[in-house]
Amino acid sequence: MWKVDDDDFKKISSWGLESNPFRAIEDFSERKKELRWLNPEHRDHYVRIIHKRLKKMGKTKDEEVFDNYYKKAEVPIDRRRWEYLMARKSWFIMPLGWETIAKYGSSVIDLGCGDGDTIQRLINYVSEYWKMNCHNDRTLKIYGIDINASRIQNAKKLVRSSNAKISFDFRTADVAGEGLEFKDQYFDFAISTGVLEILDDESCDEFIREMCRITKKGIYIEDLLEKFPGGFPRENLNEWLERNGFIVINRYVVFSEPFDVDHLSDPQKLWPIMLDQNIWAERVDKERR
Ligand SMILES: C[S@@+](CC[C@H](N)C(=O)[O-])C[C@H]1O[C@@H](n2cnc3c(N)ncnc32)[C@H](O)[C@@H]1O
After folding, report:
1. Which of 107, 132, 228, 257 is deepest in the core (most CB within 10 A)?
2. Nearest residue CA, atom 8 of ligand 1?
3. Pseudo-torsion of CA 158, 160, 166, 167, nearest 10°?
4. Which residues of 195-210 are buried (b: 16+ CB within 10 A; e: fewer)?
5. Which atom of ligand 1 is closest in space to residue 176's alpha carbon?
6. What pLDDT, in 10s, does the model give residues 278-288?
7. Domains of the chain
8. Phi-psi group of 167: left, alpha or beta (phi > 0 → left; psi -120 to 50 → alpha; rest → beta)
9. What residues does ligand 1 touch, defined as CB less than 6 Å away?
10. Pocket of ligand 1, candidates 69, 142, 146: which has the most ligand atoms within 8 Å of its Cβ, to mutate?
11. pLDDT over 70 (residue 190)
């Protein structure tokens, strides 16, 4: 079990996300993408982590690996590690489109919410945005849905809202299964981070269809853009979204941590330097189609 100390938090805060939460966009370049393979620490770590992951998953077939690892595994987490992960992931999970959520939203759903750390960041973001812009008349209801009951338990234990006008609720459900209980366009916005990358094409199709069906205005997606054992990177998520009435407004490819030619920047070395995409999509008006 990995341990986090104060220095680890300090290192993450030196990444400068507090002053610019979109720093990862300017840090990325095609040249750096190639250069990372000349970084010996990164290369060693890449090999080590892939072996470790395959061993931990304990199966050889990709589908089974991901089913067991993500959807069924019991994964308890304490507050300190949860907070570290929240800070760490803020590099590649950016508040893209969140200003629109804060301005025009009264309900949001996080599909495949895991331990709820992205919801915690959304609560903090919206609360701060309302304060800065003197929006005193708003309320926001956030739902988190995940297929893994243990993740939902973590989220229920850890997520907090210090703003009485921002409430949240968590439930266990399969987004790619029979369909969720919500009526069409029930939520103003949807978010989904790190989920599509573990779904095969059939499940991804069902997931995106359901996400678009229940969402009225806009969708934020963060997704791994490279092959990891068992994963399904997708360059063409815009086509998947367009088939379901949404158009991509912004898309950014970023590294999973700040690029450094010699070292890994994450003090905990949780992952190799991977590529991620951040997408903000909006529903196309029927008249515009
Ligand atoms: C890599 S984790 C990401 C969790 C979280 N969104 C985050 O950013 O940390 C993928 C999550 O998707 C959930 N998941 C996978 N398939 C799902 C489905 N069909 N319906 C709901 N949740 C699903 C898994 O249980 C897991 O918690």
Report:
1. 257
2. 193
3. 50
4. bbbbbeeebbebbbbb
5. 19
6. 999 999 976 55
7. 33-288 (3.40.50.150)
8. beta
9. 70-71, 112-114, 118, 145-148, 151, 174-176, 193-195, 198, 207
10. 146
11. yes
- Asked if residue 170 lies in contact with residue 116, where contact means CB atoms within 8 angstroms, the answer is yes
Nearest to 193 by CA among 226, 229, 151, 224: 224
Tokens of residue 12, six digits: 């993450």
From ligand 1's centre to the CA of 112, what distance in Å?
A: 4
Give tens-digit pLDDT for 122-134. 999 999 999 999 9
Q: How confident is the model over 5-56, as pLDDT tens digits?
A: 999 999 999 999 999 999 999 999 999 999 999 999 999 999 998 888 777 7
Q: How far apart are the first and last CA of the chain?
A: 51
pTM above 0.85, yes or no: yes
Task: Please check the confidence at residue 69 and state whether its pLDDT lies above 70.
Answer: no
Is the per-residue pLDDT at 231 higher than 80?
A: yes
Ligand 1 atom at minimum distance from 222 CA = 8
Q: What atom in ligand 1 is closest to the CA of residue 113? A: 6
Measured in angstroms, how far is the CA atom of residue 64 from the centroid of ligand 1?
15
Burial class, 132, CB count within 10 angstroms (exposed 0-12 / middle 13-18 / buried 19+): exposed
Centre of ligand 1 to C-alpha 195, Å, is: 5
Q: Ligand 1 centroid to 114 CA: how many Å?
A: 5
Q: Of the residues 147, 158, 205, 206, which should be mutated to test ligand 1's pocket, given the most ligand atoms within 8 Å of the CB? A: 147
Report the C-alpha gap between 250 and 97 in whole angstroms: 9
